[in-house]
What does this fold into?
Amino acid sequence: MEVASKSSAYRARWFEFLTPTSKRWRLLLGATVWVIFFGLWEMAVLWGWVNTLLVPSPLEVIRTLYELFAERGFLSDVGISIARILGSFLVACTLAIPLGILMGSFKTVEAFFNPFVSAWRYLPAPAFIPILLMWFGTGELPKLALLFLGVIFFLITLIMDHTSQVRAELIETAMTLGGQRWQILWTVVVPAVLPNILTSMRQMLAIAWTYLVIAEIIASTTGIGAMMMRARRFLHTDEIMAGILIIGILGLAFDVLFRWLQRVLFPYLDQEGH
Amino acid sequence: MNMLDEDRMAQSSPSACPPPTDTPKLRLANVSKSFHVPRGEAIEAIKDVSFTTLENEVCVLLGPSGCGKSTVLRMVAGLEQPSSGELMLDGCPITGPSQERGMVFQAYTSFDWLTVQQNVEYGMRLNHVPKAQRRERARHFIELVGLSRFAGAYPRHLSGGMKQRVAIARTLANEPAILLMDEPFGALDAQTRWQMQELMMSIVESANTTILMVTHDIEEAIFLADRIEFMSRHPGRVHEEIIPSFKQGRRLRHKEELIGLAGYGDLERHILHLMRAQGGEDFEH
It folds into this structure.
């Protein structure tokens, strides 16, 4: 809107350094790229550039997605997947948040745990799938364990780093105001690092989706990944793509949820759009 | 510091403030500090620093950068330990940080997640001051620094000078025995800076506080100080104690008054010479 008033004197240009675009324009551009993507895909199918057995049309995929939900009880698969993500992520967070904060606050705690935590970070979680299957059989436990292992050590490290970056002056101010160690931890360190913890959680939740699909593809009869592997056996590419689509949508939905939480929980921060 | 007494505070006019007394408030005796560098040799940062600050006095540590004046202040705050020597406040040795010695830093230290009111109440909350008393005292000090209109605002809506005023109010509301300030106006622009200096003087008059302040701004030091400890470096020690006697024990309200006083130019010239002699190593001509 501001741009419009200036446009009489200034030449409006599409490409300009250091110039923000309006929100409406951004939305429009963002939508356009998707229209082009699906348009090209639909054209490729219509004009026979691709084998429709391998590449179904986007409309076909959406129709299948509807069918999956309406007639084939796909909702329970989606529900199971979400429950697995949230369950294991919750356990990982209840462990990682206090541990990460303590490691970031006190060098002694860091010196004790960090060599252990860093070592685990370099082990790819899927390497544990065979042993997890042997230990926990084929129930829910091996999937939850894989998700947990894939997320926890990164989460601890991220939270530790954010905590150790809480500005020394804030802590020293509290010390010269008479704050005791635990008072300062609760009233300065924790509130200062909380927004960054939420950001770390948002990032790690995206990683958790990766491990979920791996777990469900390899060893599961339920969940979105398992549905996709079943579909592969019957050459139902439309169902596989519907699965991919729903994973993408859910990932995006969680991202939006976290961003909303960030705004609601930390209204005192300078958020974008101000 | 004295317990807050609303009535007396309200009635006290600037001239009614008790002048600095002869009671020693803070005493440093032969304080030294050396740092160990990785190679093993120790570097002596502070050597044999001794001085005394009287009750209700504004004492300024002045000196070129690198003379260790901030380190001395941090030792008084209890945030760093001396290698040797004695630091005493009201006759008791300083062993660590405490509510008695509240510090205002150069960097902004407002807690982003608390409003101005909550920020100023923060220290009292740590020290379990009852809620009603806390609120009342915070309101008083917020008014003292002229932020009443912003009591409900979060720090992100405040300018740099306002954030420093929050920090000052927060520290004073906590009733420290001495207020420590580490280049509190160093990050502010020139105009805000002298406004803050004048505000400081009005606070000193109405709140009866002993202040130990670090600065490298000569004019600021002369304007605010009842006593200046000029420090030299390599190693950091007190080079000269300066009493700006030309002020005749008066506290100035405006910077213009300072410039008009006979003796101001001479003192500034004297300190500039000291600074230049100290800066010789960095600025070879």
About this structure: DSSP finds nine helices and ten strands in chain B. Strands of chain B lie at 24-36, 42-54, 58-62, 84-89, 92-93, 101-104, 178-182, 210-215, 227-232, 237-242.
